[in-house]
Give the backbone structure.
Amino acid sequence: MKTVLITGCSSGYGLETARHFHARGWSVIATMRNPRQAGLPQSERVRILPLDVTSPESIAAAIEAAGPIDVLVNNAGIGVVGAFEATPMSHVRKVFETNTFGVMAMTQAVIPQMRARRSGVIVNVTSSVTLASMPLAAAYTASKQAIAGFTGSLAHELGAFGVRAKLVEPGYAPTTRFTANTDIPVVELIPEAYADFARPIFAEFAHPALTTKESDVAAAVLQAATDASDRLHYPAGPDAVALAHVA
């Protein structure tokens, strides 16, 4: 039985991905900042561990408690929507601490065991913003683009040891808690000067032509985790797939 460790499992993609792997016979280590069972199966194949990906101490404790893992899914992330001009640099740094440096830190923590076994998969969940530029998401896009480049490079250096690195690129999912972990309401990041520009964009967000479901992302993560090929990119959701064909 293989073991997957997934970050950010309290809701959204992480929670659905944990359910998806469990339903297919995997042993699942679901991690989150504030551990709780809500939404996760009651099963001897599900363990819940506390994890803050911005804390080296928390990462070390979680990796030690987890034991050997076959797949790491770096899903934890925070969103930010608004004009970059109005986004405090303190918040930009917070976004990068989770979306970029948190992913890198978790990856660095599991590489030694995977390299020693000469097997393992690291799946980094980014976003369709890495496939096409989108307005009012500059800081978020930068944090995810960094991981796209990071993962591509990592795939080459870890491939020599039988370890694979993959990217899952979800599209837009209105039902996910995209900005739930942000300290700043969107309205505060749209100055009056940007109001006319932002209005039609938010209208389109409210009624998108194509959207991504949490189940789309979970399926793409499982595909990436079990694909032994050198494929790097796995767009998730019909909108992401459409963008990938254009990119």
